[in-house]
Amino acid sequence: MRLGTFGDTRRDFDELVTRVLGSEAGGSWPSAGYNVPTDVFHDDDRLIIRMDLPEVDPGEVEVTVQENVLLINGTRKFPYEPDKVRFVRRGTFYGDFTQRVTLGRGLDLDKINARYEGGVLELSIPYADEVQPKKIAIEIGSDQTALSG
Question: Which CATH architecture best describes the domain 32-130?
Answer without folding.
Answer: Sandwich (2.60)
